[in-house]
Write a structure and sequence with these properties.
Order of helices and strands: HHH
Largest sheet: none
Number of helices: 3
Number of domains: 1
Radius of gyration: 15 Å
Helix content: over 70%
Distance between the termini: 37 Å
Number of strands: 0
Structural class: mainly alpha
Shape: flat
Strand content: under 5%
Length: 90
């Protein structure tokens, strides 16, 4: 495991992704979802919205690293807000 810099933010990130996946699995088992349309231009399921939210969050982190000197915690906070918006209204 020497190939990865295991810092607190890195560990929190991977724990959060793991918890999201477990939560989504339990939600799908309890209440299977149907495709719906929100502000995204396609019909999506919960899993689709999670994937889109995580993908945009990764690009948001890269954008903030590349064009600003903001802390990664700002990017993480913006990503959480984005993910919540996409999961609710996307």
């Amino acid at each position: 495991m020497d190939w990865m810099a295991w810092t607190l933010p890195t560990a929190l990130f991977f724990c959060a992704i793991g918890l999201l996946l477990v939560g989504m699995t339990l939600a799908e088992l309890r209440r299977p979802c149907v495709e719906r349309r929100g502000f995204l231009p396609i019909a999506t399921t919960r899993g689709d919205r999670l994937f889109i939210g995580l993908l945009v969050s990764a690009y948001l982190h890269l954008l903030i690293i590349g064009v600003s000197d903001w802390s990664l915690w700002v990017a993480s906070l913006l990503s959480v807000v984005w993910l919540l918006v996409v999961m609710r209204w996307g």
